[in-house]
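REVIEWER CHECKLIST
Item 1: Sequence provided? yes
Item 2: Single chain? yes
Item 3: Sequence as submitted:
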Amino acid sequence: MDRLIIGFCGGTGSGKTTLANRVIEAIGGDGVLVNMDCYYSDNRHLPFEERERINYDHPSAFDTELLISHLKDLKAGKSIMRPSYDFSNHARSDELVLLESAKVILVEGILLFENQELMELLDIKIFVDADADVRVLRRIVRDVRDRGRNLEGVIKQYLTTVKPMHEEFVEPYKRKADIIVPVGGYNEVAFSVIMDMIKRKIEK
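Item 4: Structure as written out by the authors:
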């Protein structure tokens, strides 16, 4: 069976996860979703204070080699044991999640297009865009509510690493996309176009 890999890239808080989740819900059992955030490098050997200082928006923070290997396995019809990440501790957890291959493989993350080998695995490349002020507000809400962070720390991280890394490793790669989705994950026209494209591809 020929499997389709679709990549959703975009800045933090752009709505890429929302859009990818909407697509996976719509296609049901024909799809599987892989989150790049689960593939942060395993730094449990480092003290917490050192883990706090890591630039998590730089390509070096990710175990991209493992992500590429897992996407190749899914493309080949194999299952994978996806790692999990504990954001409150800045460390990979012991939990592994079984993901079965499917007709449509979705992968989402901020740096999908930065790595050439990773990008070449993607049959469809989607860049989800949103205004910077919207993205930073979403980031603050998410990190404080869901990831155990404090407001001061989130703002400091945004200004010192998130914003400059976005300008260097995310925004310039927008031109690599096949589809650019403005206004985040609830652009209904874009959602319909993506679903129609998937339907045509898997019905061939």
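Item 5: Key structural point noted by reviewer: The longest helix spans residues 151-170.
Item 6: Recommendation: ____
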